[in-house]
Design brief:
Distance between the termini: 86 Å
Low-confidence stretches: 111-121, 124-135, 137-167, 432-453, 457-471
CATH class of one domain: Alpha Beta
CATH topology of one domain: Leucine-rich repeat, LRR (right-handed beta-alpha superhelix)
Mean pLDDT: 77
CATH superfamily of one domain: Ribonuclease Inhibitor
CATH architecture of one domain: Alpha-Beta Horseshoe
Radius of gyration: 30 Å
Number of helices: 7
Largest sheet: 7 strands, parallel
Number of strands: 32
Length: 471
Amino acid sequence: MALTSVIVSESVTELGSGAFQDCGSLQTMTLGKEVTELPDSLFKNCLSLIGVTFEGNITSIGISTFDGCRSLTSFTIPDTVTAIGDTAFGHCVSLAKITVTGNDAWITAIANGSNIGSDIGCFANGYTEYGNSIYFEFADAVTKEATLLGSDGFGLSEDEYNTSGIDYYNGSGTTGEATWTLENNILTITGNGDMGDAKWISEKYNYGYSITSVSVGKGVTGISMGAFQNTRVQSVTLPDTITSIGDGAFVDCVLLKSITIPESVTSIGQAAFSGCVSLTSVDIPKNVSTVGVAAFVNCFTLADLSLSEGMNNLGEQAFSNCYRLESVNFPDSLNTAGAGVFERCYSLETANLGSSLTRIGDNMFVDCSKLENVIIPATVTSIGTDAFEYPFYDTDGVLLTSASDIAGHGYTLKEVEEGISGYVITSTPTPTPTPSDGGNTTVIIVVAVIAVALIGVLAYFFVVRKGAKKA
C-alpha cells in the first residue's frame, strides 16, 4: 500500500535525518506541536509532496530538507524559523511562491539570497537549473517593497506574480521551415514543414521562462527534440498536420496540465513528456504506433490514460512513476511492452493486457502494490523478472511459475494463506476472434450445413427405396 499521508502525533519530539526521504507517493504531512526542527533531507525526493502542516513552532529547516520535492508549489516559512540549510528547497521545480512571516532582518536575508546557505542559498538549483522565478510575499508591506527583488534578482513583483508569474520577454525569428513569434507569453509557430532545431527559442534571452502558452499553426509537421523543455508552458495547441513529437519535446514542463495530441501524430519520442508533474490526463490517438522510452515518466499526477487501438509498442518505463494512475487497458493491437512500463505506479488497481501481448517485460508492474485485478492474454509466452509484485496461483492455491500456465486467465489479488498474498485465477476470458479465426469459423459452418443437407438426402432415398420394396 502506497504511503500518501502521515500525521505525526504530539508525543513525537524529534524526527531523524532522512526519515521520509524517497517516499515518492507521500502527498501531505502534519507535524505535531512538539516537533520544532526539520532535520537534513527529511523530505528529500518526496516527489509527490504538496504540503506540510506545522502545529508547533519550527525553529530550523535543515540541509536539503525539501530538496527534490518537485510537486511543491508554495511554502510558508513560519516566523519562528531562524535558520535554513543549504539547498533546503533545491530542485523544487514547481515552487513559485514563498510566504515569509519573519522579522525584518530575516526577511532581508531571504530576499537577498544571503546568510541562508552557501552561494544562492537554500533555493540553489531551484531556479538556476530550472529557471524558477519565485514571488516572495512578505508580511510587512513596507519591507516587501524594499526587499522584494534581492541582489540575486530571483524574486518577482506582486503584479508580475498575479498576472503571469513570470517576466515578459518578446521576440521573433525563424527555425527550420517555420517562423516564430513570442509576445505577451504566447509563443506562436507558423509555416509549412519541420520546425528544425527549435530548442534555442526557449533558451535564448530567457525566452523559455516567458512562455506560458504555445500555439502551433496548421502546416507545421513536427515538434522538434527538446523544443519546449523546461519552459513554463501551461497550454499547447497542436494542428492536425503534426506527425511526430520529438524526444524531450516537453520534458520538465512542470506547469503543463493537459494536452490534446492530434490524430495525425504517429510517434511520441523518448522522454517527450518526462517530468510534466502537473499533467493529469492524456489520450494517445489511434495512429500512434510507438510511445518512446520514458515518454511519460515522472508524470506524478497523471490519473487518466487512454491507449487507442493501433498502437503496437510501449517503450521501457513509458509510464513509470505515474503515481496517480489507477487503471490501464492495453489495446488488442499492442504486442510489445518494454521493461518497467508501469513501474512504481503506486495507485494502479486494474490492468487489462489486451489480446495480443507476447511478453511481459522485467519490472513491468514492480512496486504496484495496489494492483488487485489483472487479465493476462493467452498470447503471452514470456514473463520477465520481477514483472509483478505478487506471485500467481491457480484456484486450488497451487503456485504457477511458467508463462504458459499463467497466460489466458484473469486474476484477483487474494490472501492465499496467512501472511501470503498472490494473484488467484478468477476467470478465463473468451479469446477475441482474429480475422483468421473468423475465416475458419465460416468454413466450419459451411461444412456443417453441407453435412446436414447430405444426411437429409441420404435419409430421403433410404425411406423412399425401403417403401418401394415393401410395395
